[in-house]
Amino acid sequence: MFSEQCIITRFCCPFPDCIKEYQGRFNLRRHVEMNHMGKIFHKCRICSKSFSSRQVLREHSFRHSGQKPYYCSSCGKRFRQYSHLAYHRKMHKFGVLNLDDTDEVKSNQGSI
Ligand SMILES: [Zn+2]
Ligand SMILES: [Zn+2]
Ligand SMILES: [Zn+2]
């Protein structure tokens, strides 16, 4: 992980695109936490929850804003999470969903 240029007293950042070096292990650790971990753990600015991917954080943030960016092109029902839409579309495909299902409409209005 560490290249040969790194002498024992110097600590090189182990991330491949980063050339930062630090004299102390703690300084390096702080650097890694501040500059790299933030990219790995996507933190919600509103509730400070961490997420493993940007996509998951994006979908989580819709929870705060109340946005439902995904919608079914067949029936117009809106979804906050892509996985919910994917599941919903699968239901269409297998003919499980009845487009006249009033429960669908009810639950849709309830969340507004
Ligand atoms: Zn670095
Ligand atoms: Zn949040
Ligand atoms: Zn639909």
UniProtKB/TrEMBL annotation:
<keyword id="KW-0862">Zinc</keyword>
<dbReference type="InterPro" id="IPR013087">
    <property type="entry name" value="Znf_C2H2_type"/>
</dbReference>
<dbReference type="Pfam" id="PF00096">
    <property type="entry name" value="zf-C2H2"/>
</dbReference>
<dbReference type="GO" id="GO:0000978">
    <property type="term" value="F:RNA polymerase II cis-regulatory region sequence-specific DNA binding"/>
</dbReference>
<protein>
    <recommendedName>
        <fullName>C2H2-type domain-containing protein</fullName>
    </recommendedName>
</protein>
<dbReference type="InterPro" id="IPR036236">
    <property type="entry name" value="Znf_C2H2_sf"/>
</dbReference>
<dbReference type="GO" id="GO:0008270">
    <property type="term" value="F:zinc ion binding"/>
</dbReference>
<keyword id="KW-0863">Zinc-finger</keyword>
<feature type="domain" description="C2H2-type">
    <location>
        <begin position="42"/>
        <end position="69"/>
    </location>
</feature>
<feature type="domain" description="C2H2-type">
    <location>
        <begin position="70"/>
        <end position="92"/>
    </location>
</feature>
<dbReference type="GO" id="GO:0000981">
    <property type="term" value="F:DNA-binding transcription factor activity, RNA polymerase II-specific"/>
</dbReference>
<keyword id="KW-0479">Metal-binding</keyword>
